[in-house]
Every structure is written in structure tokens, then in C-alpha cells.
Design brief:
365 residues; mainly beta; Immunoglobulin-like; 2 domains; seven-stranded mixed sheet; six-stranded mixed sheet; 9% helix
């Protein structure tokens, strides 16, 4: 107990000398923040974006005055109360049923003044102050457009007009993406220099909450492993035999493509790609060889198959049969079923590739 009092006396002395900030656990005031939620939304021309204005860690909040600015050439505010003159934002639960002397959006400025009725008391905690919906104007160029909270005009007040300190502001951002027209990338395979005919299948999903896919498309790599997959227009149901992900796309403001890479005797790979550029490059991917039976894993069953067919061969040139990406030039001779690297023989090279990848499994559904 003596040591505790000694430390406390030292701390008090440092506070009095100005060498230690006077902040005791449990006694400091919470930092009040005002923020747009979500802070980033994506919308194309003609689409809408709804942003909520949240207050965090409020203590005895009774009145709010705020101004925010936006680009009126790109964003058009949607009226939350068509029965009143002008364009208004939606009042959130914090001030719902209170007195709103000013609520107007237009010409690039959002201005809101709201006050709780004294009988309702002040507000403490976290809650929604207001919400604003913007429509992206037709012809708006791609880019990122902020909704900026003006700190100079912001006022948070408690009962009897007592000002409240604001610790931080978080602006909103509406991103108008370029229209994605295609996916591209480079896909190689182990043990060969001919990277052609790998299938690249993409299922396209809209932004926002989990929804069914819009459409799908497939492309095949050229001998160098390059591909360009155009994004289809309109909507088209995915074929019943096309594997879809168990869960929807990742959260975020983007539209998404679920991309699957396949080739016989190789492990398939799957990726979520955001459609955030005109041509989305999925990068370089290498398919690991050795999945002979196509069960998604390279294991002892594949090794046994290769050993059972060891020594089988077909005169070159031959083709690995693959219906999604047929050979451009018909070839009568077909590679042996366990030929991993496509050299028309089942030999030590195929066994080595499978052994090196032993235990690997596909990440595809």
C-alpha cells in the first residue's frame, strides 16, 4: 500500500508540473466522432448510393449543425421527403421526431440542422443522425467523388447550447468505376512449354448484398498462356454443371467475377476478382500437375494411376482431350490418360510432377 501511495503522489506531482497529461482510467470523456457509413460505395451512372451519417460515443447530444459538400456534376441527391419543397435528407433515429429547422441538399451542398425536443432528453452513445441517397448522373466519368464534412461549420451541442468536442470526421466516397469490358491474364502449367487450352471461366456477380449471378463467360488460353475474356452483356443463367461458389462475393463496393482455371490432370484454381478497371488483369497463375482422377487433390490415388499406366505412349503430335477448350487443329492421336505434361508419354516426368505436388488440393468448390 505504501508503494501505491508513493506512485500516486509522483503522478500528481508530474501533472502539476505539466509533465504528465491528466487522464485517469475511467474518468476521461469519450471521443465523439461523426462519419459516413459506409465510407466507400461504388455506383455506375444511373445507380444510387445511400450513405448514413453516424455519430459515435456521443455524450448528451441535443443539437447538430453540419454542412457537407459533393460534386453536383456527378452526384444528384434523391429527395427523402417528396411532400416538402426542395430536396431533403432522411432524418435518422437520433433526431427522429425532433425539430429540424434546416434540411436541404442541392447545388453541391448538404446542410442539416436538427435538434431533439427537450422532453425527449439528450442522446448518448452511437446512432444514425441522417442518411442521404445520391444518384450517379448519366455520363458521369469514372473516378472517386468525396462527400466532405466541413469541420468549420460543424456544431454538436448539449443541453442549453453547451458545445461538445468532436474528435474526428470521416468523409464519404462514391466511386464511379470504369465499365469492365474484359478479363485478361497469363496462365501456365508445369512441365510444358505449351500453355494453350487452359479454360478460364468467369461468373459475374452484381455489387451489394448477396444476389444470383448476372451471367457467365469462358475463354481459352493461347499457346503462350495468355487470354482475353470479354464480359458479356445482359443476363444469362449459369449452366447447371458449372460449379458456383458456396458463398457470395466478398463484401465491398465492387461488382465481382468468380474466376475458375481448369485443365485435365491439373489442380483447378479459383479466385474472386473485383471489377474495378476497364480490363481486369487477374495476373499470372500456375496450375500444378498431378490430379489425374480429378477429385481436387493430388494424392496416392493419382500416383497409383500414373504407375499403372507407366510406359504408355502415343506417337507425337498428340492432343490432351478437353471439351471446354478443344484443339484448334484436329489431331487423331490422343495422349494417354495419365500424361500430365502433354508429351504423349507417361513416364518419370509425370510421376515427378505429381510427387512434387503431393498433398495439394484445389481451392475450388
Amino acid at each position: 500500500m505504501k508503494d501505491l501511495w508513493g506512485w500516486r503522489n509522483l503522478a500528481v506531482s508530474l501533472v502539476l508540473l505539466g509533465l504528465l497529461p491528466m487522464s485517469w482510467p475511467g474518468l476521461g470523456a469519450s471521443a465523439t466522432n461523426l462519419r459516413f457509413q459506409p465510407s466507400l460505395l461504388q455506383a455506375r451512372p444511373g445507380e444510387t448510393a445511400r450513405l448514413e451519417i453516424w455519430v459515435d460515443a456521443a455524450v448528451d447530444l441535443a443539437r447538430l449543425e453540419l454542412t457537407a459538400s459533393y460534386d453536383p456534376q456527378v452526384l444528384e441527391a434523391v429527395d427523402a421527403d417528396p411532400g416538402r419543397e426542395g430536396v431533403q435528407v432522411e432524418i435518422g433515429p437520433v433526431f427522429e421526431g425532433g425539430y429540424v429547422p434546416q434540411n436541404q441538399v442541392g447545388d453541391g451542398t448538404l446542410r442539416l440542422v436538427a435538434q431533439r425536443f427537450p422532453a425527449d432528453g439528450s442522446f448518448s452513445g452511437q446512432g444514425i443522425v441522417a442518411a442521404v441517397t445520391f444518384r450517379v448522373r448519366e455520363g458521369a466519368p469514372p473516378g472517386s467523388y468525396p462527400i466532405h464534412l466541413d469541420p468549420a461549420s460543424l456544431r454538436l451541442m448539449g443541453p442549453e447550447g453547451r458545445p461538445l468536442e468532436v474528435a474526428g470526421l470521416t468523409d464519404g466516397l462514391v466511386r464511379v468505376p470504369p465499365l469492365t469490358t474484359a478479363l485478361s491474364g497469363w496462365i501456365t502449367r508445369e512441365g510444358t512449354a505449351d500453355y494453350g487450352r487452359t479454360s478460364v471461366t468467369a461468373i459475374f456477380y452484381p455489387a451489394g448484398p448477396v444476389q444470383p449471378p448476372l451471367n457467365w463467360a469462358r475463354a481459352c488460353t493461347d499457346p503462350h498462356g495468355d487470354f482475353l475474356l470479354p464480359v458479356p452483356d445482359g443476363e444469362e443463367a449459369t449452366p447447371p454443371d458449372l460449379s458456383r461458389p458456396d458463398e457470395g462475393p466478398p463484401s465491398g463496393p465492387h461488382e465481382w467475377a468468380f474466376v475458375r482455371l481448369d485443365f485435365p490432370n491439373h489442380g483447378s484454381e479459383c479466385y474472386w476478382m473485383p471489377l474495378d478497371e476497364e480490363v481486369v488483369n487477374i495476373g499470372w497463375h500456375v496450375l500444378e500437375g498431378g490430379d489425374i482422377n480429378g477429385d481436387g487433390c493430388i494424392n496416392i490415388l493419382d500416383i497409383v494411376r500414373i504407375i499403372a499406366e507407366f510406359g504408355q505412349s502415343t506417337p507425337a503430335p498428340c492432343v490432351v482431350p478437353y471439351a471446354p477448350c478443344p484443339a484448334p487443329d484436329p489431331v487423331e492421336r490422343v495422349a494417354p490418360p495419365s500424361d500430365v505434361n502433354g508429351d504423349c508419354r507417361v513416364n518419370i516426368f509425370d510421376l515427378t510432377i505429381a510427387a512434387e505436388n503431393f498433398g495439394l488440393c484445389s481451392n475450388c468448390p
